[in-house]
């Protein structure tokens, strides 16, 4: 066999071929490292990807304005308040609701007036949202005539209301959702609802997100209990898809110093209250918690714990309040958000 007069040329060619193979292999089989703050979609037990970290932040109206207020801000808030009360006196309830919601969302009202506005908005919510009456031109509600083969939960999805069917059942005083007669006119409400929790004040404020405008309308305030020793994490959360449950089972966490065995609804030691409501939460954005961390909102069989920091980290409500909250927070389509503040 004839030998090359320049063996180093052959070496250079071989080295170039090897380098080319390595480059191609890296691109094909070893993808670039993800940034530290990027999390791939997870696949929980219910089969739905969580897409944590990609959900937009809660609408601005659910968050208190954390800026230095100016005299102009306070003047604007008082003007909105004045207009809202004038509309209320004229029985223009929808105009009053909008103006008072805008006044409250400025976060520039004095404390005593803010409390008065909350009370008035809750009363307006009872009249315009949670009653059977449908007000003309209300962007949040409308009438719907029940049709042949309709099922309430499917109607909610078809109309993309972003509220649980339980709320529609409550508003329309439906005893059995499987026996709604064809032709009955129902009141529908558009959501979703969002929650803001203040740990230091032991309160949860509920807002309805008005369609199209995005205006946050205060509708309810609940008293809550929170975790002892600061164990309830602050941040942005959402209700986990498919993880709202009645008569939910409970296993004591390791931090409880209790025997780690499954406790079912109705058994001794069961902590979630009369109907066992459980609403699972997962963090969004920079809140680094998943469903597996076990944080959520639930009822309690210890009413004296409301208004105290005594839980294992979850947020608890009294039996009547958790039932109403369970009917408002949505876990499909457009999620309800929960903001937990210090």
CATH-defined architecture of the largest domain: Beta Barrel
Number of strands: 12
Give the strand order, joined by hyphens, for the main sheet: 5-4-3-12-7-8-9-11
Spatial separation of the terminal alpha carbons:
83 Å
Indicate the proportion of strand residues: 15-25%
| Mean pLDDT over the residues | 84
> Helix amount, in percent?
25-40%
Q: How many domains in all?
A: 3
Structural shape: globular
| CATH class term of the largest domain | Mainly Beta
What about the largest sheet? Answer: 8 strands, mixed
Number of helices: 7
Quaternary state of this entry equals: single chain
- CATH fold-type name of the largest domain: L,D-transpeptidase catalytic domain-like
Q: Name the poorly predicted regions.
A: 1-5, 21-63
Rg to the nearest angstrom?
27 Å
Structure overview:
The structure is a single chain. This protein is of the alpha/beta class and 342 residues long. The protein is 29% helix and 18% strand. It has helices at residues 7-29, 71-89, 93-105, 111-128, 152-159, 165-171, 319-328, and strands at 141-145, 185-189, 193-198, 203-209, 216-223, 226-227, 235-245, 278-283, 296-298, 309-311, 315-316, 337-341. Helix 2 runs antiparallel to helix 3 (93-105).
Helix and strand layout, with pairings?
Layout: H1 7-29, H2 71-89, H3 93-105, H4 111-128, E1 141-145, H5 152-159, H6 165-171, E2 185-189, E3 193-198, E4 203-209, E5 216-223, E6 226-227, E7 235-245, E8 278-283, E9 296-298, E10 309-311, E11 315-316, H7 319-328, E12 337-341
Parallel strand pairs: 3-12, 6-10, 9-11
Antiparallel strand pairs: 1-2, 3-4, 4-5, 7-8, 7-12, 8-9
Helix pairs in contact: 2-3, 3-4, 6-7
